[in-house]
Design brief:
Length: 378
């Protein structure tokens, strides 16, 4: 089975009618489709590893070339009156040159507030769409248009409309990791950083449709105690790949470390269970968004942390906390889509003003309300 067939099969399976039985079938089919071609995984890992090696050569010549490239980008940024926004999962050299590095909520706020004429967005496609929606008069550039999102691909506008039809009157809360078309069908957006606040702001007797991340939705449902909340069966292939066994192995290897877990992770449900029964210490375990992890790393007295999320976040953690040690739960938790952005294609995007992402007015106007509610809730 090819990668494309596997992706289509996975998306179709995840759009199954969300009854319990069909959900399980859908998840199993999706997982099977994503595993169908082992070469896809190897190619993805190889591409991600290559991207992480910002400069494949060593020595003074390579360093001088990189300095020249950075200088060129900064000059183009000045010339274009651009701002560079980068997600926490970007490679180190991209984070280092950015004007702002953060999570989806922080990046949305920056995009809405900027006075720059051009936004060079170092992230993935749905993030650039969100920037375009919030700043329709700005030019939003994405250095590589193939920087997509496996989670966003698990739901589309047709699927969410069919879901809404089965639950008339329900409020739709969409994770920001969705396309502009899905956001246009939603009442609220949220990030992992404010999902609890968003759901708690909705009256308790109001039925909720939460999409597309199953693990984040399940965590929110448990934390809020909402019984009238239906959850779409989507997942991020990177976070879903972080399993309870990974947590157990790292905790055994580094027993004195504090554990920080992203709510998208496949291990979140088991972590919450072990917190409840006392197997994992509450004072050394937190479930946090990437920005929440950054804050915890700064304020905690701990000197060692085990981090369960995409490994790109470790660069900023280590840079801001040089006296502390940060250990990934899984070295393989690398998003090849996030790693598509590099200094070369950043330079080329600004030089040629190419790869603009612009959302049409009708869709943008509908999606903006859901995004603005997310930003306002904070």
């Amino acid at each position: 089975m090819s990668a494309e067939v596997g992706r289509v099969a996975a998306a179709a399976a995840l759009r199954a009618d969300p009854t319990v039985a069909e959900v399980e079938v859908g998840r199993a089919a999706a997982a099977a489709a994503l595993r169908a071609d082992p070469t896809v995984v190897e190619v993805g890992r190889a591409a991600a590893a290559a991207a992480l090696r910002a400069d494949p050569t060593d020595g003074p010549q390579a360093e001088a070339a990189r300095r020249d490239l950075v200088a060129e980008i900064l000059e183009l940024k000045r010339k274009r009156n651009a701002v560079i926004l980068a997600h926490n999962y970007q490679i180190g050299p991209v984070q280092d040159i950015a004007d702002y590095v953060g999570d989806s909520l922080g990046l949305s706020r920056q995009a809405a507030a900027t006075e720059a004429d051009v936004i060079l967005f170092c992230g993935v496609h749905f993030m650039a769409e969100t920037a375009s929606i919030l700043s329709p008069d700005k030019t939003v550039l994405l250095p590589d248009l193939t920087a997509g999102c496996s989670l966003a691909d698990t739901i589309d506008a047709e699927g969410i409309r069919a879901w809404k039809a089965r639950y008339p009157g329900a409020v739709v809360v969409s994770y920001v990791n969705t396309s502009a078309l899905v956001k246009a069908e939603s009442d609220y957006c949220c990030t992992s950083g404010n999902a609890l606040k968003v759901v708690r702001s909705i009256p308790e007797d109001q039925e909720i449709l939460f999409c597309p991340d199953f693990f984040l939705g399940s965590w929110v449902q448990k934390a809020t105690g909402r019984r009238n909340m239906h959850i779409w069966m989507g997942e991020c292939h990177v976070h879903a790949g972080i399993r309870p066994s990974d947590i157990g192995a790292r905790r055994a290897a580094v027993p004195d470390a504090e554990l920080m877990v992203h709510p998208e992770c496949g291990c979140t449900a088991s972590v919450l269970y072990y917190l409840e029964d006392g197997s994992i210490s509450r004072d050394r375990t937190t479930v946090l968004s990437t920005e929440g992890m950054m804050q915890r790393a700064r304020t905690s007295d701990a000197k060692r942390f085990v981090v369960a999320t995409e490994t790109g976040v470790l660069h900023r953690m280590r840079r801001e906390n040089p006296d502390k040690e940060f250990i990934p739960v899984s070295e393989g938790a690398v998003c090849m889509y996030m790693k598509k952005i590099n200094l070369e294609n950043m330079r080329d995007a600004l030089l040629h003003m190419r790869h603009e992402v612009r959302v049409g007015k009708e869709v943008a106007d509908r999606a903006r309300l859901a995004i603005e509610r997310m930003v306002a809730i904070g």
